[in-house]
């Protein structure tokens, strides 16, 4: 069999996807700074480009309002107004009249606006810089006759091949159209991988030189189970993978017999499997897969893909919707965990050399009280609709959780003053994902109502190995004794203090780890909705100690 066309990578989302490659290369936008002699011809070339820009953007805005809502459409329509703004077009046209080519004029004028916007004290004005970047790129693409593919609108049966998939891009993917994902970077625990799993799209990450090996339109097989990508398969290979795909789908069917069953070990110890979700609509997946609640709602995804933070009312509505759908089952909502590999253009993040060790998650929230208080107030108000647990990410010292508790108490007093109600049984817990928190788990256990072990970060911080870097993937293992000892100690400390402990990192659904977790005494597993039934089946095979 020909194996030259088979490329290895990291199998990051299970399943077999067969489809046509859509290679998304960042467009090359460099140009010669030519002086023009016929300035009126250059001027009409520029005006024609503006017309095309307006037409394209109007079409995109229409599509956006149908698929993602009016807020996104309004942002695009705002771009049209900026390009048509007389001040901006006068600046560009006068440069062209003095002999600059249209590319140079557009580029320089946009850069000037970007510099002014970026240095403003006003947050809204600073956001305009990102819009301006986008406009500059779009205008140059038309001037240079470059094509771009909108990831939201790719055809059914496409395999996306891209250097790096960012979390906000993944949010925009229509899972019905994407047969598979291939990237050149990223590891199994990066957020793009987690989202690919949540969408149940087979994905293989960190395939070396994928973008030079795969051409647009090539037939590609993505094997997310073994982590291989086959380009232009032979008939024999196609047949082999069709069989593998059918077997995988059959197994998924068989798992359905675990729907409605309790989660118990072979000797009858009852456990609980909750779910990790990223947006309120995912709660439907929790119910469909018989999850026993929500163990992690990553709220940061609600803040992405838009150009201002959701208001208190919008957040209240989202949290309320999840709590109501879960009908009094536990719903663990994690406060904003931004930073690391998840960025939000409109939030004022300093440029950092080491984002994972920097101003992220609770560190950022405690420094941005208004944003944090808005989220906490929405959570408190939503608490009357179900069994809410508030979970704080990236805690690394006791003072942080005490400060959060203090703030929650202040906000409760504020709500009392306004006559707004909240539940008196909200639980407050923390993610155990920094070595410092885990090593002092006995101290934290006296301060909070529950722990949830976040192995995705805990492994990277314990092993000093970036969770998204394929070159250090050999270090990134939950089975390293250092990580296992921390997990064991966290569980023991929680139980000594009489509080429950769960795990919401990706390792919670790792079949090889489950026996150990049961031996250590873990109470709750929180996994992707698509992993509930197989985790229940895996637990059922194990005898507890
Ligand atoms: C974790 O770190 O294990 C976790 C669940 O959080 P995230 O992947 O969002 O960092
Ligand atoms: Mg984490």
Distance between the termini: 47 Å
Number of domains: 3
Q: What's the overall geometry?
A: globular
Mean pLDDT: 91
Total strand count, please? 16
Identify the strand order in the major beta sheet. Answer: 1-8-7-3-4-5-6-2
Any overview of this molecule?
This protein is an alpha/beta fold and 545 residues long. It folds into 3 domains: 6-22 and 156-235, Glucose Oxidase, domain 1; 39-143, Orthogonal Bundle (Enzyme I, Chain A, domain 2); 268-540, TIM Barrel, CATH 3.20.20.60. Helices cover 46% and strands 14% of the residues. The protein is built from 21 helices and 16 strands. The strands form 2 sheets. An 8-stranded mixed sheet has the order 1-8-7-3-4-5-6-2. The chain has an 8-stranded parallel barrel with strand order 9-10-11-12-13-14-15-16, surrounded by 4 helices. Helix 20 links the parallel strand 15 and strand 16. Helix 1 (39-67) packs antiparallel against helix 2 (70-84) and helix 1 crosses helix 5 (123-143). The two termini are 47 Å apart. It binds phosphoenolpyruvate (PEP) and magnesium ion.
Summarize the structure.
By secondary structure, the chain is of the alpha/beta class.
Which SSEs are present, and which pair or pack?
Blueprint: E1 6-8, E2 10-13, E3 16-24, H1 39-67, H2 70-84, H3 86-97, H4 102-118, H5 123-143, E4 158-162, H6 167-171, E5 178-183, H7 191-198, E6 203-205, H8 210-213, E7 219-223, E8 228-231, H9 235-254, E9 272-277, H10 283-288, E10 294-298, H11 300-303, H12 312-325, E11 330-334, H13 361-367, H14 369-382, E12 387-392, H15 398-418, E13 427-432, H16 435-439, H17 441-444, E14 450-453, H18 455-463, H19 481-497, E15 501-503, H20 514-520, E16 524-527, H21 532-540
Parallel strand pairs: 3-4, 4-5, 5-6, 9-10, 9-16, 10-11, 11-12, 12-13, 13-14, 14-15, 15-16
Antiparallel strand pairs: 1-8, 2-6, 3-7, 7-8
Helix pairs in contact: 1-2, 1-5, 3-4, 4-5, 12-14, 14-15
């Amino acid at each position: 069999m020909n194996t030259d066309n088979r490329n290895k990578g990291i199998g990051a989302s299970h399943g077999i996807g067969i489809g046509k490659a859509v290679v998304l290369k960042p467009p090359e936008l460099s140009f010669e700074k030519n002086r023009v002699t016929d300035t009126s011809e250059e001027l009409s070339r520029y005006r024609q480009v503006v017309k095309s820009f307006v037409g394209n953007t109007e079409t995109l805005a229409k599509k956006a309002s149908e698929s993602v809502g009016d807020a996104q459409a309004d942002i695009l329509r705002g771009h049209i107004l900026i390009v048509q703004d007389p001040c901006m077009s006068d600046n560009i046209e006068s440069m062209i009249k003095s002999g600059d080519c249209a590319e140079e004029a557009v580029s320089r004028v946009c850069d000037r606006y970007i510099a002014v916007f970026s240095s403003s004290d006003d947050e809204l004005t600073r956001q305009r810089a990102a819009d301006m970047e986008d406009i500059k790129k779009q205008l140059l693409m038309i001037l240079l006759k470059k094509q771009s593919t909108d990831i939201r609108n790719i055809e059914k049966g496409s395999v996306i091949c891209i250097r790096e998939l960012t979390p906000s891009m993944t949010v925009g993917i229509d899972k019905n159209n994407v047969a598979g994902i291939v990237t050149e970077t990223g590891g199994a625990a990066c957020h793009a991988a987690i989202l690919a799993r949540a969408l149940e799209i087979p994905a293989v990450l960190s395939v070396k030189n994928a973008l030079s090996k795969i051409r647009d339109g090539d037939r590609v097989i993505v094997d997310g189970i073994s982590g291989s990508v086959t380009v232009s398969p032979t008939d024999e290979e196609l047949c082999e993978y069709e069989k593998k795909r059918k077997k995988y789908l059959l197994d998924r069917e068989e798992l359905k017999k675990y729907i409605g069953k309790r989660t118990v070990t072979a000797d009858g110890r009852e456990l609980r499997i909750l779910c990790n979700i990223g947006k309120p609509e995912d709660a439907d997946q929790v119910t469909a897969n018989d999850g026993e609640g929500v163990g992690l709602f990553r709220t940061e995804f609600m803040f992405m893909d838009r150009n201002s933070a959701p208001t208190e009312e919008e957040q209240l509505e989202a949290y309320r919707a999840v709590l109501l759908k879960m009908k009094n089952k536990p719903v663990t909502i994690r406060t904003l965990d931004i930073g690391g590999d998840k960025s939000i253009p409109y939030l004022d993040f300093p440029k950092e050399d080491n984002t994972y060790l920097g101003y992220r998650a609770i560190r950022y929230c405690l420094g941005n009280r208004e944003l944090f208080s808005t989220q906490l107030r929405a959570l408190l108000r939503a608490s009357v609709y179900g069994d809410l647990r508030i979970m704080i990410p990236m805690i690394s010292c006791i003072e942080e959780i005490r400060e959060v508790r203090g703030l929650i108490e202040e906000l409760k007093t504020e709500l009392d003053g306004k006559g707004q109600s909240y539940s008196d049984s909200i639980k407050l817990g923390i993610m155990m994902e920094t070595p410092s928190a885990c090593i002092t788990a006995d101290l934290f256990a006296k301060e909070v109502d529950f722990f949830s072990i976040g192995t995705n970060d805990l492994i990277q911080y314990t092993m000093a190995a970036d969770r998204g870097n394929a070159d250090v993937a050999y270090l990134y293992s939950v089975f390293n004794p250092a990580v296992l000892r921390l997990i064991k100690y966290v569980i023991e400390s929680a139980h000594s203090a009489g509080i429950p402990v769960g795990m919401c990192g990706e390792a919670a659904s790792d079949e090889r780890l489950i026996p150990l977790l049961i031996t250590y005494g873990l109470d709750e597993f929180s996994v992707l909705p698509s992993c509930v039934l197989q985790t229940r089946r895996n637990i059922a095979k194990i005898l507890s100690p």
